[in-house]
Amino acid sequence: QQHSPTPVPTPGGSPDSQPNGPAAAAAKSDVKADASRPNAPAAVAGGSGTSTPSRTADDSSHPAAVDADATAIDAAGVNGGEAEDDGAVAEVRWETCKVRRGVSATDYIPCLDNIRAIKALRSRRHMEHRERHCPAPPPRCLVRMPAGYRLPVPWPRSRDMIWYNNVPHPKLVEYKKDQNWVTKSGDYLVFPGGGTQFKDGVARYIQFVEQIMPTIQWGTHTRTVLDVGCGVASFGGYLLDRNVITMSLAPKDEHEAQIQFALERGIPAFLGVIGTQKLPFPDNAFDVVHCGKPLLELNRVLRPGGFFVWSATPVYRKEQRDQDDWNAMVTLTKSMCWRTVVKSEDINGIGVVIYQKPTSNSCYLERKTNEPHLCSKKDGSRFPWYAPLDSCILPSAVSSSDETSNSPLLWPERLIRYASVPDDSATIEKFDADTKYWKQVISEVCYNDFPVNWSSVRNVMDMNAGYGGFAAALVDKPLWVMNVVPIGQSDTLPVIFSRGLIGVYHDWCESFNTYPRTYDVLHMSDLLGSLTKRCDILEVAAEIDRILRPGRWLVLKDTMDMIKKMRPVLRSLHYETVIVKRQFLVGKKTFWRPRR
Q: Its family (predicted)?
């Protein structure tokens, strides 16, 4: 009942070579009602000429239906961009998603909540039920909002408290009440900064790690961190104070809403599990990996010379089970040539061990047994989208005589320096041009002409990130950017990580691994044309609507032809829209939801 991943060309392939749609033999969608898949849009001429359909009575049911901080959108447009606007609205009968039993209608994630496909799995031994199982065709429905939903608490207050009604999940409050993860206080969920291993708070823990391992140098030598099994992401949240950006990773499991809590707090986070498939990150991406189990997959995404920080009970407890786990850890890390740098305990007796990944192949070649073996071409493609986990170790690209050259530059210098990557289409000239272009656009257009209240923006996603120039231009703002490199585009994600930014691979003909209502700005640049050759524009619009918070913005940069196709669809969703300089379509999501 699970569909095969949407067939796509190899990374760097031409958009014209992409197939026309998802595999025909795919499983049926887990969204029940056929009415949730509206007919293709047909533009309707006429109308009032304004950019907003009339508000329905449904809007008034939400306490924050009007964003007092938001910038009002001028229906007449900016810089003469709307001279030919006819007020067209696509004829689409949108409906709310009808989900199956066991799935929250307000937290629906199509590729992680496909109950029919999950029930058909032959095994769940390796967490297969937590992996992606995308319905086909993709749903064209809208996710409901929780009762009493309101605009999120602004950053930085949101790091410590969020509205309970926005993420009404009390289970974790009760389950982790003795570990100081999260508590409920009136209308808020409060995050005291505690955790299983953070007896004196996460800030003290971060300080302790740097104290026992000074070369980790938070915010200069260490910029990008992967936190595996992140709880409510307080570790990543407090590392932001040190100029470190952390990808907090956890599955959608019985610890309900961990990642949703993180994103509502304004902390970078992503739903994922190390099951049978690779994580959607490039090889050698992160400076530090925190917690998790030291599997070959974490070795793959950790850069040569990077550190693995492990704080778990086997490090410091003496029970037989913990000792067995520790002995297995010693055997595995030796086989991967990880060097134990330091093992220490804090004043509470909580232990931390820090390993370092080798920077050359000399240790691998000197092992008595070649297990795990070094990866070669016969082990298959390195590209990690729907790819099985490696059973091999990725060899280093540098020789033993050149170990120091493998370390990245210090932050923030690395942000503006190009690092060569395996994709031959990536060049320093393209990198410099992308950086220069977005720096100019952000300063001259986005801040001045866009009807976006940037002071209320915290979580940003660049849906076609290229070299990360858009994120680099925003780096001084109190926000963070999830850089997405779409399947079928040039593989520039290694460049993005080398700059000290974070991101993932994704196919936008499928749903993204995030909860509904988790981003303030979605930015899509020059992608819609190639994307709609493989999937319907309504499916793309429904996914955008699922991810975007009410009262927040979609920024689409594309040709006027593509803008004219998307604008009526956004209007059918009751978005307020404006065209800027005949290159950008800015749409503001309202609190409207269909009655059905």
A: Belongs to the methyltransferase superfamily.
